[in-house]
Amino acid sequence: MTSDARTHPALGLDFAASYRAISGRDARWDGRLYLGVTSTGIYCRPSCPARKPKPENCRFFPSAAACVAAGFRACKRCRPDTIPGSPDWNARGDLAARAVRRIRDGAVDEAGVPGLASELAVSGRHLRRILVEEIGAGPLQLARTRRAHAARALIEQTDLPLADIAFAAGFGSVRQFGDTMREEFGVAPSSLVRDSARARAARGSGTATSDERPALALRLRTRAPFAAAPVRAYLTAHAVPGRDEVPSDPSEPTRHAIDAPGGTAVARVDWGRIAAAGDGSVAIPVGLELPSLADTLPAIENLRRLLDLDADPGQLGGAFSEDPLLAPLIAARPGLRSPGARTPAEFALGVVLGQQISLAAARTVQGRLASAFARPDERPLARADGFLGAPDPARIADTPLEELRAALGIMRSRAETLRALAAAIADGLDLGPGADRAEARSRLLELRGIGPWTAELIALRGLGDPDAYPAGDLILHRALGVGTAREAVRRAEDWRPFRGYAAQLLWADFLESTATPTRKDPA
C-alpha cells in the first residue's frame, strides 16, 4: 500500500507526517486527524494512549465521518467523538466548507440532501462528490455521525429514555437510531454506559421533563485551554435586556435566550463550575430549557457558536507565536475565544443600531428592538418565561419609518438603514455560517449606511469568518500604531487566515486597560 492510499489528500499531510503525529500522541491534531487501525477496525484520535499500531495497519482521515464511511468504529478508550471536529472548515469559503458548516448546523436534518444542495446551488450528486473527495464522507454520513455523537452525549449525561434521545438527536426513527449507533460505536445504544446518579447529582439533575418545556443539564466539550473570563465579559458587555440575564458576580451563572426552530430556548452557563475534562478538553456545564426535545441539537449548536467552543487554541497560538505584538497577548490570554452571534440576523441589526454610540446605549436600543419586534408565536411552549424571542426582520421592514423611530428612539438615517437591512434579510440575505461570505459582504455594502467596519463585524460574528477584519476600527488603529485602514490591513497580512482572532486579542487587551467603553468597542 502506498502512502497516498493511506492518507486522505484533504489533510495536506503525507503518511510519514501523520504517523509521526500519532507516534508522539500529539494532542494538537485531535479533531483534525483521525487514525483508522485496520487490524482492529477502530478509529482513534492521535493522542490515544493505546499502543502504537504498525504502519501497515494505519489509515488516516480528516473526519470521524470518513472513518465510519470506511468501516471503522470509535475507540472506547480515547473517545474521539468527544473532541470538536476540525475548525479549519471555518476558515474556508469554498463549497465543501460551506456544506460542512451547514450540515453541522442541521441542514440535512431540516431539508435533506436535496434541500442543502439547492441552497448551495449545486446538484445533490455534485455535492456528494465534492464532500467525498474533500472529507471522505458524503452529506448523509456527515449528518449521521453528527447525530450519533450528540446522542451518545445525551445517553451519558441525561436520564432521557432512549426513544426520546433518538428524537432529540434528530433521528427519524428508533430503528435508524439503533443502526447508526451500532455503525458508529460497535454496540447498541442500550449497551452504552450512562453516568451514575451520583455523578449527575454532583453537577445538577441531568433531565427535568414535564408536560411543558423539557430541561437538560449537559457538559459541552471544547479544546483546552478555555479563557472563560473574557467570554463572560463579552456577554456582559453585550447583554440585551429581555434576551440575556448576566449577574454582576462573575462566578454566577448567566442565562441567554437561544433561538431554535420550535421557539425560544434558554441556556444557562455555569461559569463557576467549568473544569478540565482530563483528555485535553474542557467541560462547560450548561442547562437548556427547550420548547421541545426536537430543538436540542439546534440550541446546542447556537450555544457552541455563541461561546466559540469549536476554536483550536493550539492552532491560534502557533499562528501568532512569532508575532512581536500578538505573541505576548496570546501568552497572557491562552484559550481566548471570539464569541459568535446566537442569531446572525439579530446581531446584524444590533450592529447597525450600535453605530456611533456607546455599548450601554446600544444595549438599551437593542432591548427596545427585541421588546417591540420579537417574533410572534402563539404556541405556548415556544415562549420562554422572562425572555423575548429574536427580532423579526419582516416586521421591522414593514414598520413605517416614523413609527420605527418612535419605538426605538433613533435618528432617521439609522432607522432607514435598519429597515433596509431588515428588508434584505427578510428577502433572503443569508448572514449565517453557511452563507457565501463574498456575496453576503457585497450585499451588505450595497445598503446605504453600512460600511466596511459594520460589514466585517457581521462577517466575524454572524458569518463566523475567522479572517474577518474591521480594519477601520479605531481601537485596532491605536493598538497597531497606525492611522488608516490601509495601514491596518498591511500590518495584519501575516495573521491570515485568523485576523479576526488577532482583532479579538487586541480588543481584549484594550478593554482590560480602560474602564470606559467607547463607540468602537468590539461588537
From TrEMBL:
Ranges for domain HTH araC/xylS-type: 97-195
Essential cofactor(s): Zn(2+)
EC code(s) of this entry: 3.2.2.21
UniProt entry tagged with the keyword Transferase: yes
Superkingdom to which the source organism belongs: Bacteria
SUPFAM superfamilies: Ada DNA repair protein, N-terminal domain (N-Ada 10) (SSF57884), DNA-glycosylase (SSF48150), Homeodomain-like (SSF46689), TATA-box binding protein-like (SSF55945)
Gene source species: Leucobacter iarius
Catalytic reaction list: Hydrolysis of alkylated DNA, releasing 3-methyladenine, 3-methylguanine, 7-methylguanine and 7-methyladenine
InterPro entries listed in its UniProt record: Ada-like_dom_sf, Ada_DNA_repair_Zn-bd, AlkA_N, AlkA_N_sf, Alkylbase_DNA_Glycosylase/TA, DNA_glycosylase, HhH-GPD_domain, HhH_base_excis_C
Enzyme class: hydrolase
PROSITE patterns xref list: HTH_ARAC_FAMILY_2 (PS01124)
UniProt KW keywords: Activator, DNA damage, DNA repair, Methyltransferase, Transcription, Transcription regulation, Transferase
Pfam families in the cross-refs: Ada_Zn_binding, AlkA_N, HhH-GPD, HTH_18
The protein's name: DNA-3-methyladenine glycosylase II
Gene3D superfamilies: DNA Methylphosphotriester Repair Domain, DNA-3-methyladenine glycosylase AlkA, N-terminal domain, Helix-hairpin-Helix base-excision DNA repair enzymes (C-terminal), Homeodomain-like, Hypothetical protein, domain 2
